[in-house]
Amino acid sequence: MTARPYVLLSCAMSIDGYIDDASTERLLFSNDSDFDRIDAVRAGCDAILVGAATVRRDDPRLLVRSDRRRADRVAHGLPPSPVKVTVTGSGDLDPTARFFTLGDGAKLVYCPRGAVEKTREQVGAVATVVDAGDPVTPEAVLADLAARGVRRLMVEGGGSVHAQFLAAGLADELHLVVAPFFVGDGRAPRFVADGRYPWHPGRRARVVEVRQIGDVVLTRYALSDRCDGRGGG
Ligand SMILES: NC(=O)c1ccc[n+]([C@@H]2O[C@H](COP(=O)([O-])OP(=O)(O)OC[C@H]3O[C@@H](n4cnc5c(N)ncnc54)[C@H](OP(=O)(O)O)[C@@H]3O)[C@@H](O)[C@H]2O)c1
């Protein structure tokens, strides 16, 4: 059996724990140096996953930006950027979103059986739509990614997908960036919603690194024995 991919969660939040504000504009938490660090982490992964709401709301590119890092990947026989992955239940995805239009690499869309037809109609021409069973679980997504050769997966949010990987105990490492401001608006999304998570006051996660990057602070948490604390990126 193929081992499940190593799963690295990446999130940036405000001091008061919000991952966005309530406006329609995209809110940036990281600074240029931290975006460059994130680029390095991306370049070290085989695939990047975001939820469909993040595709709709943020319209992210999810590409390795640095020419050098893309060239390094190609020199090692890899595509310039990791495979892009999303999950949807509604199939409500726009084929002109940058997730689909930018980059020559593979794009995978996981959805429950009942949404396959609609999702293929929407984005079947620009992505591979995968019937992931019903309901779609992180386990099923990871098993399919492993079969496609993905060994290291970066999960970039939003809160719904982060929560599912955390609650299922399928996260090996968390990179949490805190930006030096408050959002202060209860309508805005937080990192994760209420839930039962494997790390609680009786079982504390292990901090493997704290790093100041300009005006933000990165904390890296080991969430499984597979995280050896090296290679912070
Ligand atoms: N600060 C950060 O680091 C960061 C990073 C990324 C995103 N964000 C923010 O996070 C917010 C979005 O987070 P979110 O929690 O609302 O959404 P999300 O996690 O991006 O996406 C949730 C959507 O993904 C699909 N989905 C997730 N799990 C599924 C499952 N098991 N089966 C089927 N479909 C599934 C559903 O799509 P359908 O609705 O299509 O069914 C669901 O509505 C945005 O405001 C974005 O800006 C912040």
Strand content: 15-25%
The DSSP helix count reads 7
| Cofactors and ligands | NADP nicotinamide-adenine-dinucleotide phosphate
Largest sheet: 9 strands, mixed
Classify the helix fraction into a percent range. 25-40%
Please tell me what the overall shape is.
globular
Distance between the termini: 29 Å
Question: What is the H/E order?
Answer: EHEHHEHEHEHEHEEE
* Rg (CA only): 17 Å
User: Based on helices, strands and strand pairing, what is the structural class?
Assistant: alpha/beta
Number of strands: 9
For the largest beta sheet, what order do the strands appear in spatially? 5-4-3-2-6-1-7-9-8
Average pLDDT, all residues? 96
Q: Poorly predicted ranges (pLDDT <50, ≥5 residues)? A: none
What can you see in these coordinates?
The longest helix is centred in the N-terminal third of the chain and has 12 residues, at 32-43. The chain has helices at 32-43, 52-58, 67-75, 98-101, 116-123, 138-147, 159-167; strands spanning 6-13, 47-51, 83-87, 107-111, 128-131, 152-155, 173-178, 206-213, 216-222. The two termini are 29 Å apart. Helices cover 25% and strands 22% of the residues. It is globular. It is of the alpha/beta class and 233 residues long. Helix 5 links the parallel strand 4 and strand 5 (128-131). The model has no long low-confidence stretch (mean pLDDT 96). Strands 5-4-3-2-6-1-7-9-8 form a nine-stranded mixed sheet. NADP nicotinamide-adenine-dinucleotide phosphate (NAP) binds at residues 11-12, 19-20, 29, 50-54, 57-58, 87-90, 92, 112, 135-136, 156-161, 164, 189.
